[in-house]
Design brief:
Bound molecules: pyridoxal-5'-phosphate
Number of strands: 13
Oligomer: single chain
Largest sheet: 7 strands, mixed
Helix content: 40-55%
Distance between the termini: 48 Å
């Protein structure tokens, strides 16, 4: 095939968690729980819903390309200047903008071998090399990443907490790493799940900010706005300035902008979401322990666990029982599955069906 670029031929498509409606249709089910994509099972803030309804009347107009109000709200929240913030159509778009802004053909991107798949896919779409460094004990191995750096290295992605493992690298490790590498290498810390973290030694990257660091955050997870597509980057204003030239002019839609401004004000909703996850995490750990299931302790709203059977077989059995979980085939962890921590009822159903599958298997 000469019609398509070589780097595109070799791409594997991203396989998302199966949507609820599709699962209902395919298996003739009336009740389906989705615990596959780390979404917030409580929905989103009622304030965000109200704000969205109010903006519907203005959707004949283009959105505010500068995202003024949401930048102002974030700038107040974090006490940083607005020009250190860039909004994106989800952090997925910002990953693309970052690669396009900083990495030339012939240069390379480094990340872990078992991490958010978009880093690799988007690097390859942009025809730049993607180097994978193995995790160590399911955790990012910053020392090993440092050893892989060479004159071609331009960008490093660190998902912190990591998806799909739920592990994190602490402040001390991060500081040591940042001190030891060239300031010409851009280091992206993707903090999609930071709202759920309950560890005192988690790095506070917004304090003593370094000129080569970019922090990514999103409204898709704890804020419950995955369907709207909105995320943001915080970095030195010089880096943000260049990224701002690369992004699409109207990348964040009107409804997403209004909902995000309102969602940021709703501390009660975030607190509830966090408390639910922390409480339900304990419930799931206890059930896994009882069943003798090995799992990786997590600081996010999902748990990676190990099975005695192939993950595809397990996920398919779960689907038939109306519970969508994420098999780890794409991550080459054939005996692992990732489950999102949901509401009490969802988690209980997940465990109940899990037990039935194990019993059927014996
Ligand atoms: C879910 C997830 C994202 C995606 O965020 P969007 O803002 O929805 O594009 C980014 N990074 C990681 C590590 C994630 O798990």
């Amino acid at each position: 095939m000469n019609i398509v670029k070589k780097n595109v031929i070799n791409l594997k498509p991203y396989i998302p968690g199966k949507p609820i409606e599709e699962t209902k249709r395919e298996f003739s089910l009336s009740r389906v729980y989705k615990l596959a994509s780390n979404e917030n099972s409580l929905g989103c803030s009622p304030l965000a819903q109200k704000a969205m309804k109010e903006s519907i009347s203005s959707i004949n107009r283009y959105p505010d390309g500068a995202c003024f109000y949401i930048k102002r709200a974030l700038s107040k929240k974090f006490r940083i200047k607005s020009d250190r913030i860039l909004l994106g159509n989800g952090s997925d778009e910002l990953i693309d903008v970052i690669i396009k802004t900083f990495v030339k053909k012939g240069e390379s991107v480094i990340s872990a071998d078992c991490t958010f798949l978009e880093y690799e896919i988007i690097s390859k779409v942009n025809d730049v090399r993607f180097i994978k460094v193995p995790l160590k004990g399911f955790k990012y191995d910053l020392e090993a990443i440092k050893k892989k750096i060479n004159s071609k290295t331009k960008l490093i992605f660190i998902a912190n907490p990591n998806n799909p493992t739920g592990t994190y690298v602490n402040g001390q490790e991060v500081n040591r790493f940042l001190k030891s590498i060239s300031k010409e290498i851009v280091v992206v810390f993707d903090e999609a799940y930071i709202e759920y973290v309950d560890k005192k030694d988690f790095p506070d990257l917004l304090k003593n900010f370094q000129s080569n660091v970019i922090v990514l955050r999103t409204f898709s997870k704890a804020y419950g706005l995955a369907g709207l597509r909105i995320g943001y980057a915080i970095a030195d204003e010089v880096l943000i300035g260049y990224m701002n030239r690369v992004r699409q002019p109207f990348n964040v839609n009107t409804l997403a902008q209004s909902a995000a401004v309102a969602a940021l004000k709703d501390n009660v909703f975030i607190r509830k979401s966090r408390e639910l996850v922390l409480k339900q995490k304990k419930f799931l750990y206890k059930q896994f322990d009882k069943l003798g299931i090995e799992y990786i302790p997590t600081v996010a709203n999902f748990i990676l666990f190990r099975l005695g059977m192939d993950c595809l077989v397990f996920a398919r059995k779960m689907l038939k029982k109306g519970v969508i979980v994420r098999d780890m085939k794409q991550y080459e962890l054939d005996n692992y599955v990732r489950v999102t921590i949901g509401k009490e009822k969802e988690n209980m159903t997940f465990i109940k069906e899990f037990v039935r599958i194990i019993e059927e298997d014996i």
